User: What shape does this take?
Amino acid sequence: MPERATELLRELFDGRRISIRGRWYDVFEYSLDDRERERVPLEDEGAKARNQGHLRHPSIVESHFKGWAKPGPVPPGASSPPDVPGDETLDAISGHFRIFQLRDGHRFSTDDVLTAWYGTTWAPRAASVLDLGSGIGSVGMIAAWRLPGARVVTIEAQDESVRLARKSAAYNGLESRFEIRHGDFRESSAIAPDERFDLVLGSPPYFPLDAGVHGDHPQKVACRFELRGDIADYATVATRHLAPGGVFACVFPEEQKERIEAAAHKTELTIVRRRPVVFKEGEPPLVGLFLMMARRDLPEPMRERTWLEPRLIIRGADGRVHAEYSAVKLAVGFPP
Assistant: This one.
């Protein structure tokens, strides 16, 4: 990786700029004008609701937020004030859905949202979804919100992340179609040999173990560094469990796209389309969205072709959310 890019990532790692899934950047829900909405924990409001005798948490069942009508169902967890320990927060995700996160641990952000959006956009009829290395469940829950008829399976190795994901799934009323498996997705016992999925999602760690200092919250370290597999492992498992015509969608650094191309080639996947993501207009893209299919499912002329889409800009040069990204946010149940 070029020296300047490495320096930039170190700056971002220190939290001075961005924080994508606890890794790089901070241009999404936890910054600028979005920060107030997404990082306000709900426990204080819960006390207020109890004092006023409300059966439901007012900020959860509120139909609008700053003029934006919240889409989707009100989850069962909103039927009573939430129980949120002091070291956790309960934060807005898609529509009325909420997600439990550690206050000082790994917190969802842009890469999770973009991965779920990209995958569900190009697999709109998916009836089965697999989320590899699912963390606290943000990618899978956004996918479940967008695909209300789909069965979702997530696999995560970290105890704390699994615990939080199960709390969130229960809160959002997803238990009947949202299975959270505790384990390493690379192990043969994690997924049955005959299991197949229409959509596989992944937001893999970006850095090899020797790429930086690991001194941070252990939950964050596992999201940043390749402790349990790299992009090649994600591609291998995705290929093995794709249903006929299924797609694998993931996010990965633009500076390392050779690694994802090599992983796709080795596992007989074709990158059908990819989209670079620019976090501020005028700057180079830092990550890209990749959509892959098994070569066996494509006609021969398509097996070596990739459609490079126009860049997706998160914020304009003036710092405001770009118009297209506002539309993306609306599509996944976020305020524009």
Notes: Residues 4-59 have pLDDT under 50 and may be disordered. The first helix runs from residue 3 to 13. The chain is about 30% helix and 20% strand.
